[in-house]
Amino acid sequence: MRYVSTRGGMPPTPFCDILLGGLAPDGGLTIPEAYPRLGREDLARMRPMGYRHLAFDILTRLIDDIPAPDLRRLVDQTYTAAVFRNARPGENPEDITPVLTLEPGLYLAALSNGPTLAFKDIAMQLLGNVFEYVLEHRGERLNIVGATSGDTGSSAEYAMRGKPAIRVFMLSPHGKMSRFQSAQMFSLQDDNIHNIAVRGVFDDCQDIVKALSNDAGFKARLRIGAVNSINWARVAAQIVYYFKAYFAVTRSDDEEVSFAVPSGNFGNICAGHIARMMGLPIRRLILATNENDVLDEFFRTGRYAPRATADTRHTSSPSMDISKASNFERFVFDLVGRDPAKVRELWAEVDRGRAFDLAGTPLLGRLREFGFVSGSSSHADRLATIRRVRSQYGVTIDTHTADGLKVGLEHREAGVALVCLETALPAKFADAIREALGCEPERPAGFEHIEDLPQRFEVMDADVDAVKAYVAARCR
Ligand SMILES: *Cc1c(COP(=O)(O)O)cnc(C)c1O
After folding, report:
1. 345: domain range?
2. Distance from residue 139's CA to the centre of ligand 1 (Å)
3. Are the C-beta atoms of residues 330 and 31 closer than 8 Å to each other?
């Protein structure tokens, strides 16, 4: 399996050579040259597999330059009940992504049982182990610099902590994360983890990271890498749980299932699209946004009008507060028949901050062929959904999952199972739960007092040179 760029400017490249990079050299995103296709026999064989076995079976079709026994070991060491230990009572932690039945035909796929209580752990935990493996083989080190408003940063830190070949420098807006989220990150005492609390907002953090990445000399000298959501390995790892959930809610491979996906950067649902392209019988991919509804507008009308980061609305589902979905180009590449010239033409507009519009072209109809429908959800919708799910099913869900469920139910069809992806546990977003239910969300064991643990972080001004100096001093 080799990888190409959505913009056509990269020779076919093996997995390990795109693993540590961000964008393709031509500014596009990396994508398999062709998707592996699974037949009926493959699905029948996969149906009884446990998570690890299934993950290996899928990933080995996408990663062929890590010897199979090594890949199997990396997968086995990642997806254990000890790592994904925050299952609800009654869920089997061995399932890694257990599926909860809300009512017949309506399910919640619990993707957030990993160390930071968000679905990002599923991919990031594997990424940490694969990074370590590849760096060790090449005798290299890597310094990861990233910006976070909450979930990505903690997920990356918990995946990379204690790995001697990797250092993490994570910038976050000082005082702007939830108390729980700051405590998760700042209480890590590992030497290779560096938290930088920037006096400013998330966009300031993001701008500093961009400035560092655009300084080619600095980047090469200090071996700066990224773990942001455009990383192909993250998308690849997320394909697995679509299969797992499909098998959990069906009896035969003749059945179709729809998935509702709370979306921001389009990484999660992109994995669902690829699972469908590989042959998993997915009927609808239901994309849910919050008030930041750029993607909903696209899937309803064909017009893609990314907004300036300054126009991003701050909502109670903050991990979906995205105005420009970084993985979206991967889907559009497939939509336009894998024609890189067409992608270049469309992104010539996007990269200038302008919109493109597919209304009135045959491409609009193809959106439905690819199974996509969409909708958006507001703060009031989230609260109402959290309350209803609590009273009707006795389950507490978080605000992002509530966005997904609300939109998912709008597109539910009789006789078709609907799986809503749970992208975080409610403990991470206590304020909204308190507002919806008037009580504190339950915390999984071990998280009871994390706000009281000693914290380690450096407060800095939003000053590129100061951050550069800080990073350089710790990379010697
Ligand atoms: C990251 C995140 C999302 C959005 O996922 P994308 O892959 O960026 O679409 C949704 N919910 C939660 C809780 C997240 O952390």
Report:
1. 93-117+233-437
2. 33
3. yes
Q: Is residue 165 part of a domain?
A: no
Average pLDDT over residues 312-338: 92
Among the residues of 47-178, which ranges form H helices?
51-62, 68-78, 120-138, 151-160
213 — pLDDT class (breaks 50, 70, 90): confident
Tell me which residues are annotated as active site: 120
| 67 domain-assigned | no
Specify if 207 maps to a domain.
no
Indicate the top mutation candidate among 239, 265, 289, 312 to test ligand 1's pocket, ranked by most ligand atoms within 8 A of CB: 265
Ligand 1 centroid from CA 162, angstroms: 25
Task: Supply the Cα-derived Rg of the chain in whole angstroms.
Answer: 21
Which residues, in sequence order, are CB contacts of 424 under 8 Å at separation 6+?
A: 112, 117, 118, 119, 151, 319, 398, 400, 401
Alpha-helix runs per DSSP H in 336-378: 340-350, 362-369
Q: How many domains does the chain have?
A: 1
57 inside domain:
no
C-alpha 75, offset from chain centre: 18
What CATH number does residue 300 fall under? Answer: 3.40.50.1100
Ligand 1 neighbours, Cβ below 6 Å, are 118, 120, 151, 229, 262-268, 319-320, 400, 423-424
Nearest CA to ligand 1 atom 7: 267
pLDDT tens-place string over residues 29-87: 999 999 999 999 999 999 999 999 999 999 999 999 999 999 999 999 999 999 999 99
What is the tens place of the pLDDT at every residue in 420-457?
A: 999 999 999 999 999 999 999 999 999 999 999 999 99
